[in-house]
Amino acid sequence: MNHVHYLDYLGSDQNSDRPAPRRRVSSDPCLPERLPATSFLEREAELVAPKAVLRQLRRSPTPSPPDSSGLEAEVEETSGHQRRPSLTSLASSTSSIKSFGSSFMQRRQDAKSQSSWKEPQPFEVLRAVENKDIMYLMEVRDRAFHLLVRMSGGITPLLHAMRLGNSHRDVAVILLGAFSRWVNHLEDDQMDNPRTKTVLKALRTNLKLAIDYGLTKTQGSDLTASFLQTLIMSQGEVWVMGQAGNIGLALRAGTEGHPVQTADAAVRKFATRELGKADLIASLADYIANATADLLMLGAWMNVCEVLELQPIPTYYFARDDRVYKAFVERIDEHKTAVSLKLSKRLKWQLRVLRTVLEGRTTTYRNKVELLAGELDEGEGV
Prior knowledge:
Blueprint: H1 4-10, H2 38-59, H3 68-80, H4 87-116, H5 122-130, H6 134-143, H7 157-163, H8 169-184, H9 194-212, H10 216-219, H11 222-235, H12 237-252, H13 259-275, H14 278-282, H15 285-308, H16 323-334, H17 336-342, H18 345-357, H19 365-377
Helix pairs in contact: 2-18, 5-7, 6-8, 7-8, 8-11, 9-11, 11-12, 12-13, 12-15, 13-15, 15-18, 15-19, 18-19
């Protein structure tokens, strides 16, 4: 057979497998945009994350109370099973007996020293201030605190320390710390004691003298906050109850009532009336935020009390660290079933928001109040 035409085709250009040349791409190098710094990303995450949690709270229903039958079965099962004491538990028991014995001996020594200790005269306390006898003043603080605030010969230990000048300013600061410590460690059963009321009034006078002498310039907002705290505890019960009622009404109105703004304005007005100094008010940002948060919780719980016929949170908890928050959470947990079944949807949402935002100490009260304002005053509401 004649295959010449096949050979001619195979040798022609039509059978070439070489690719056609492509147009060369011109070189135009560029650098990608640099990612933000890690600190910026963390700051943005801390700002956005709480808001996302609050948005989720608006959509999530109130958790139902736990089933008591399951808990009872678990308790019965636990009580029916007795565990043999281990060597560790026996050792801990032995150490507990030893610690009990040592604590018993310590109490006997303390009782003996208490019987031998005699309450000093006011002039002895003033002499300790002059001599900068800090250990003696601390002993007076623990055993006879009223002597640190008593007026004797027209002067108190704090005023005496301030009049002695800069050489005794550290003594004045220590006395102020003792005042703040005493206020924050008052127990519930002590508030109805007439002697406690008398000491609070004397303490208020001491702090007001310190403010007038300008000691706040070295102490920052601690002294001013202690003064307002003592003032509210001694004479501010009516004000706290009245403002809590106003905040409760604002919470009922939802975001239109601007409860956070109302609480903040009430605290600032009270501080301005009592202090009358704009520079002191400016240094009270943390205290005002703390008091604003407490008013919101007191107002919300007052709304709960009207529905469930419960007792309000004591007013002397107001602006004392996180006492109001602890009482707020304990009462919600104690009446969890009634809160879930009988309260309105808006009030349950407000309770969840307050509890979530004010929990923990990783952020300042100012940041917490800003989050509450964004949700309770400017948010979508419920």
